[in-house]
Design a protein that fits this description.
16 helices, Nucleotidyltransferase, domain 5, 2 domains, seven-stranded mixed beta sheet, alpha+beta, 23 strands, three-stranded antiparallel beta sheet
Length: about 475
């Protein structure tokens, strides 16, 4: 996206990057295809905008966080496909780490549970599954990075190998207190420190790219969900956003103090700008928009995701159907990496439309679980939830979410807040914006949703959902 200094989108270019599924639960991507697609959309978005490259003042990057890439330092080529954040192929490595008694020290230092979701076990798996992986890594021949690191490395022609604190906090290798790679954690996963990028602020000039034929500063790196929290202008303690993308991601600003969750959420770094460090509580739903993709591409019961809104409104109810889309396990607050997807409540009267509506509703139910856990951790009653991501366009989903939470849902005019956050951070680094006060007035609300169902109706629905999740985990 090209975004102007009023935070308006000038032009957008996008290209889907294919996932591959070599075995059940495995999710991979070609890192080279990621890089090729980025080059294409960067050049295409400038062409669409009909502007001069010289008019671009800064480049910001936001990315899938835990997705893991290892590449050869000399050739700059990936040594294996990128292991996507959703991939569960490191289950065995994680179970081994739990059995070895590392769960407590890892949670204390990183705020994370041991789970295949995070990058450390993915790095270990790649080194174990390529020829001489460990030896090459120890000899300094291999580099590791999440997608931000990979793109900065490629954009700068191999000159800069960095990541920011928000992405580093998702690797299970960074100490949340020191904001540095932790020697003990590296030893637990047997990962050579020489592979790792330098950890930097989320808003800073890291280097320059000549991709466009003009020298442009790369001035922000931030994980996608932290970027959305910033893009939603959740600058104050207690503000909360939920992104409805491939997964659902709830982040709650806890300020300069890390809050330890007792209810299955994770502690993470929101962002760091010079001396300001912001922490957050986060809950992750592994399969949200991906469940709608499953309806489209797997079951082929819809042609476009947008059809789900019309279909949901045409039905009086989901007729007691619950879909638990645990296709890659269950994330927060359950953390059951072995769970599989399930459908409950089928009768002879069940139609594909009931299944479609129940799948759509599963996004709201899973998000309800996250917010319930967050409220238990913080003793704060949610007054409003700020929403973004592609699926927040769906009015039925947003109304149902408001009903379940018995809270207001606030949808901004520009709900591409993930990209917006990176743009804002790059603007702060390069002097386009003086401070965060420059940004707040630019937030415009498009629509608010208020609860329509009463609490008794909602409790009945939630009881059914909880029963379905319990049965899924026990299967």
């Amino acid at each position: 996206m090209i975004i102007d200094d009023n935070l308006q989108i000038v032009s957008i270019s996008q290209q889907e990057v294919a996932n591959s599924f070599p075995k059940p639960g495995w999710v991979q991507m070609s890192a080279s295809e990621i890089w090729t697609s980025v080059q294409y959309v960067c050049l295409n978005v400038v062409e669409k905008a009909r502007i001069n490259v010289e008019d671009i003042k800064a480049v910001g990057i936001t990315n899938q966080r835990e997705t893991t890439i290892v590449w050869d330092k000399k050739t700059g080529l990936p040594v294996y496909d990128a292991l996507v954040w959703q991939s569960r192929q490191t289950n065995e490595l994680c179970e081994k780490a739990v059995r070895a008694g590392y769960a407590e020290v890892i949670r204390r230092k990183t705020g994370l549970p041991i789970d295949p979701y995070f990058s450390s076990s993915k790095v270990r798996w790649i080194l174990d599954n390529i020829e001489n992986g460990q030896k090459r890594a120890e000899n300094g021949e291999l580099l590791f990075g999440t997608v931000d690191s990979w793109l900065v490395y490629k954009l700068t022609g191999g000159k800069v190998h960095i990541t920011d604190v928000s992405n580093a906090s998702r690797t299970m290798l960074m100490n949340l207190d020191t904001l540095q790679w932790d020697k003990e954690l590296l030893e637990i996963w047997n990962i050579p420190g020489c592979m790792l990028p330098e950890i930097r602020d989320s808003s800073a000039v890291y280097g320059y790219t000549d991709l466009f034929g003009t020298r442009l500063p790369i001035a922000a790196c931030v994980g996608d969900q932290q970027s959305a929290l910033f893009g939603q202008m959740c600058f104050e303690v207690g503000q909360c956003k939920n992104t409805y993308g491939t997964g659902c991601f709830l982040l709650f600003n806890t300020g300069n103090k890390r809050v330890e969750s007792k209810n299955g959420l994770v502690t993470t770094v929101g962002w760091k700008i010079k001396d300001e460090i912001v922490y957050a509580l986060e809950g992750s739903v592994f399969v949200a928009g991906a469940a709608i993709q499953w309806l489209r591409d797997g079951l082929k019961v819809i042609e476009k995701a947008s059809e789900t809104e019309r279909i949901a409104y045409e039905l009086e109810s989901s007729d007691g159907i619950y879909v638990v889309p645990a296709f890659t396990g269950l994330g927060a607050p359950y953390w059951d990496q072995n769970a599989k997807g399930a459908i409950f409540g089928l009768t002879r009267g069940t139609t594909t439309n009931h299944l479609i509506r129940a799948t759509l509703e599963s996004l709201a139910y899973q998000s309800y679980d996250l917010i319930e856990a967050m409220q238990q951790d913080t003793d704060i009653t949610l007054a409003a939830l700020q929403v973004d991501g592609g699926a927040c366009r769906n009015n039925y989903l947003m109304q149902f979410q408001s009903d379940l939470l018995q809270s207001r849902i606030v949808r901004p005019v520009n709900f591409e807040t993930t990209a917006l956050g990176a743009a804002m951070l790059s603007g702060l680094a390069t002097g386009i914006f003086t401070d965060k006060n420059d940004l707040i007035d630019k937030y415009v609300v498009e629509k608010k949703f208020e609860p329509l169902l009463n609490s008794m109706q909602v409790q009945k629905l939630i009881q059914g959902w909880k029963k379905a999740v319990k049965a899924t985990m026990e299967f």
